[in-house]
Specification:
The complex is a heterodimer of chains A (about 270) and B (about 170). Chain A is α+β, with helices and mostly antiparallel strands and about 270 residues long. Chain A has 11 helices and 14 strands. In chain A, the strands form 4 sheets. In chain A, strands 4-5-10-6-7 form a 5-stranded antiparallel sheet. A 4-stranded antiparallel sheet of chain A has the order 11-12-13-14, sandwiched between helices. In chain B, strands 2-1-5-3-4 form a 5-stranded mixed sheet. Classes of the chains: A alpha+beta (about 270), B alpha+beta (about 170). At the A-B interface, helix 2 and helix 5 of A face strand 4, helix 3 and helix 4 of B.
């Protein structure tokens, strides 16, 4: 199918993008276009105006700043996959990126676009929550920060207001002894996942974090000391999976249970 | 007797694209995606459209030297980018090697997916010279073929990987 007749405005800077979004409540920002492009063609999205932010240099590039990685939202999945940058996540970013869709999509699709699109089955929403990332957001009233775990509110819904633009993804550096695991189940390589489980343990900061994603809405983050020792026991895993906060039913519960066992094994080094 | 058809007003914009080494001026609506502009406005019909939602891979073209979907973005967004469609690889040695291998290994039947397959195959050969069968299959997940069952396609790419002289890559 073809998209509805919309116009494109090219933003010259972030403030200009915010202004353009504020001026037209039916405008949508576009970055790599790999999600919105499909939504447009399917007419699931019918904006009057699309604000093109893909040329904004301020939203590109990635660097390490003291104890965190600062990733521009326009960094493509392919760039993260190829790993030719200073990494502070022990390869987790590259691993997650490599599993997203297909190379032709990864060459254009961006980490920020994927986060803002907030598909429950997409990868960066889950991975950034697992890494304890923080997002910088610029809107009409200035800038603010939101924790990745609080960003998504439900399927395709986030705390972004209509004229807000994601300007940076801040990922805390993992310690040398940190361990991470990111597991997902897709029926076919590159498809949206039916289940995602990810874990991050960092002895230096004492963080033990587990994320369930590809749920009906936002990912569920569980964070407490001793979590992974506790979950070595299959009974404890059952209790966790039965928790109302997760509310995974049917065959997807079985998929999450299987991935959880894999993640525990990865983290504990018993795989 | 003639029927009078009324079409809604269209808002075309004029922009320039660099396609297969040539500068082209195109007038199209902003919503027109690159694949439609290549086919309908540039007469380059090697690029095929299957799903128009980024899944089937038939529309894959090269943008600045790497494969991308041409169905997912407005053609206006490709101003200033180097666009290469399958037509650009007629006299390209790697393109020729891939076409020969596809023919000899029966890597196509109806041919609808083939343009996208050849662009992806090119990327695999250049980016992943060490790819084994499993990796080739993984990389081909973004290109659907409903005739061959993929065996011939995988064999053709394997053959080119074995026989095509690789220029020194960056060691990956």
């Amino acid at each position: 199918m073809k998209a509805i007749d919309y116009r494109i405005e090219r933003a010259s800077d972030v403030a200009g993008a915010v202004e353009a979004l504020q001026a037209d409540p039916f405008a949508k920002p576009i970055a790599g276009g790999q999600s919105l492009g499909a939504m447009l063609n399917l007419r699931l999205a019918q904006p009057e105006c699309v604000i093109d932010i893909v040329g904004l240099d301020a939203l590109k590039g990635l660097r390490i700043e003291s104890d965190e990685m600062v990733i521009g939202p326009l960094v493509t999945h392919a760039r993260l996959e190829d790993g030719r940058y200073d990494d502070a996540t022990g390869g987790m970013l590259a691993h997650v990126a490599a599993g997203i869709a297909y190379r032709a999509v990864r060459n254009s699709g961006t980490i920020g676009g994927s986060i803002c699109h907030a598909d429950p089955a997409a990868d960066w929403i889950a991975a950034t929550a697992a890494l304890g990332a923080t997002f910088d957001i610029q809107g009409p009233d200035g800038t603010r920060q939101v924790a990745a775990r609080d960003f998504m509110t439900s399927a395709f819904e986030t705390t972004l207001a209509e004229a807000d633009v994601l300007t940076a993804i801040r990922v805390p550096a993992l310690g040398d002894t940190a361990r991470w695991s990111y597991r997902k189940f897709c029926r076919k390589t590159g498809e949206f996942a039916l289940a995602i489980v990810s874990g991050v343990v960092d002895g230096q900061t004492g963080i033990e974090r587990l994320v369930f994603s590809a749920l009906d809405g936002a990912p569920v983050v569980i964070e407490r000391a001793g979590l992974f020792d506790e979950l070595a026991e299959p009974d404890a895993r059952q209790v966790l999976l039965d928790d109302d906060a997760l509310s995974i039913s049917g065959h997807r519960r079985a998929l999450h249970a299987g991935l959880l066992a894999d993640v525990i094994a990865d983290i504990r080094g018993t795989a | 007797m003639s029927a009078h058809l009324e079409f809604p007003e269209s808002h075309t914009v004029t922009f320039r694209l660099h396609v297969n080494g040539e500068e082209r001026e195109v007038s199209a609506e902003p919503r027109t995606h690159l694949a439609d502009v290549l086919r309908e406005h540039c007469g380059l019909t090697a690029t095929h459209l299957g799903c128009e939602q980024g899944v089937c891979g038939a529309c894959t073209v090269e943008i600045d030297g790497v494969p991308q979907r041409s169905c997912l973005q407005s053609a206006t967004r490709f101003e200033g980018r180097e666009i290469r469609t399958l037509e650009a690889f007629e006299n390209d040695p790697l393109g020729a090697a891939l076409r020969r291998a596809f023919s000899e290994e029966h890597a196509l039947q109806c041919g609808y997916c083939t343009p996208g397959m050849l662009i992806t195959a090119r990327d695999i050969v250049q980016r992943l010279p060490q790819a084994d069968e499993a990796r080739i299959r993984e990389e081909l997940a973004g290109n659907l073929c409903r005739c061959t069952g993929y065996r011939g396609i995988v064999r053709a790419i394997q053959r080119v990987l074995e026989t095509y002289p690789h220029e020194s890559s960056d060691g990956r």
